[in-house]
Fold:
Amino acid sequence: MPSGQGIHLPDEIVEFIVGWLYELPRHRTPDSQDHRSPDLKRQIDLWAFCAVSRQWYRVGLRHLYRCPALWENNSFALFMRTVKGASPDLGSKVMILNLQKLQHQSSPSQTARLISWTKKGLRSFFAPRVSFATNCLAPLSKCNNITMLDLSLVGGRSFSFSRLKKAICSLPKISTLRLPISVPITDPNDSTGQWPSSLWNMHIGGLLIPTVMLSFQWPPNISCLTVSGCLDLNPEVLESLLGNTQLRDSLKSLTLRPDNRYIFDDSSAILYEMAALYHLEIPVDLMYPLCILPSSFDSLPIRHLVLSKPYDEEFWKSASNPDDNSFKNRIAEDIYEALDEGESLSNIWTLGVDPKYKPWACEHQQDGIEAAIIHHLDDFLDEELDEMLFEEMGIYWASG
Structure:
């Protein structure tokens, strides 16, 4: 081949290469001297790919702008200058806009402009803590293709919940919404109005007022709820939240994070009123306050139980003394008994456990619990098992 003549590949091959490069895992290792984030490494790799030739630039451009890393050095300012009035329309190629790691690189007006420039192709938006305000809601309401909206880190009280909901109601494709914990819902009427029918997954936290939560109007098709960063999740709050008629009858998946505060000064059996609940994720030390253990009520409908890190981590560590297994022995015995027919966990098919906080003392106990779970599967039809699409049956290690 003559010197200087480039190798031309079909666009399909180049597309395959850049797709592989985009999805390539990039992990930080503890002993690595490279402190760049995986997202920044991906951005650098894609930039180098696009520099190979005009063909590779043309094919790789949409991947380069698909999920920009904007928090390193002055990358945010450079990106703003690049997409402003760019030809071709580079902003429309952005599908994932993550501004959560920004500190003071942006302002509310800059965030609003950036949302406006990227609204055409935007699918997922992660709002920054300090530079998202009321003026961002108008351009946000025009992001007709957005499916995931994360406002969880937004600080201050720069807008009301009613104004936020008005903007969200204009998003026809949104499926997942993480509400800001800094914006309280203080009036039951704040939730009136029609939520998008596509919205089924919500995250809520901050200040939850029992009387408001009891009558709160949830999206008509909500089936998945995560409670995180709640300022006070005592039994009254949780029971008013889950006692809401919509959630009580239709909620299929519930996650209670360990970062909620003041969880339980008393026990609650509210889970036994959740008729459709098949997925439950809770801190491992909440099995007793939630009356899952010891089994003394009817069986729960739960198929998939995940036990995450404990809410009271210090107590768990002190009680789990390796020289005295009585604490974990009692928990293991209660779990095993709860798996019997008609008991609280008799419908469980899969159990996820944080390996650092195993609720048993030895492998023999683990094997017995797993055998009891697998035994449940014999009572169900293959069609029902296939419908759940669980990748793991029995016990598996859940990420911490």
User: Anything to note?
Assistant: DSSP finds 14 helices and eleven strands in the chain. The two ends are 54 Å apart (CA to CA). The chain has a mean pLDDT of 89.
